[in-house]
Inverse folding.
């Protein structure tokens, strides 16, 4: 992935209300997920949360894991393990 496209994937562009609409989640639940450390959106100079496409993917994953019956502690562990697998795969691909 090119450096510019990687930045576009992680750059905060969506307000919390848009992120909620995109993921069919409630705004207050998204705030809980942030407080629990499941995601960390960027903030504008005025403090407004700005969600990136990567954050939206994470919110979809959280929604799906909730639907499968996991609690937030379990979801945190799943996300942590998935991130570790992604890091290890990237390291293997680099050689």
């Amino acid at each position: 992935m090119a450096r510019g496209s990687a930045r576009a994937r992680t750059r905060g562009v969506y307000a919390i209300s848009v992120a909620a609409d995109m993921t069919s989640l409630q705004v207050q639940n998204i705030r809980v997920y942030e407080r629990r450390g499941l995601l960390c959106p960027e903030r504008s100079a005025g403090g407004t949360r700005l969600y990136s496409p990567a954050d939206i993917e994470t919110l979809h994953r959280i929604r799906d894991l909730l639907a499968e019956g996991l609690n937030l502690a379990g979801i945190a562990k799943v996300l942590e393990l998935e991130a570790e697998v992604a890091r290890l795969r990237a390291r293997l691909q680099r050689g």
User: Anything to note?
Assistant: The mean pLDDT is 93.
